[in-house]
Amino acid sequence: MNVTVVDRSLTSLLxxxxxxxxxxxxxxAEIVYVCVDDGLPGGYxxxxxxxxxxxxxxxxxxARPGRIFANDQVDAGLSxxxxxxxxxxxxxxxxxxxxxLEQRAGSGTTYTAEVPGAHATRLTALAEPAGITxxxxxxxxxxxxxxxxxRGLPERLGCRVDDENRLWLAGEPYRLIREPGPAxxxxxx
Length: 189
What we know:
By secondary structure, the protein is α+β, with helices and mostly antiparallel strands. It contains 6 helices and 12 strands. Strands 1-2-3-4-5 form a 5-stranded antiparallel sheet, with helices on one face. The chain has a 4-stranded antiparallel sheet with strand order 7-8-6-12.
């Protein structure tokens, strides 16, 4: 069952990040899951919010990459489910899930950005994600899966892609430009 959150900015943020909420109720508690829209019913859970007996909320998130269905408590004593969901969003790492989905889609789309040389060096040296190449004059190229991976990183890490196709590095945004597809590069319409 999908959950409607009253806070419109939170609803918009979830949609931009390709996430949605589901709710599970039992006699003991109501759990609100934050899930990646992976095309399957129920999605891929990357965190959840659960109420305490005191009336506050706990937030748990998939905060360590590579751990499947393992969540860490990231906050407690939160006053609302919206606040708990925002805490999940601040910590959840699901770039590997988005990377795999984009790879499965087989998109050949690439993006470029002009960044300072030190940032270009740092990005291309990362073990994850694959698909970032350094070009001449401080430019980098990212494959669609690499871009998807960076979309799934929390803001607090300082290296991410936002919903406006900006690459954020050390608090500075850099515009990503979608390159023409392979057909356009070969001169086809």
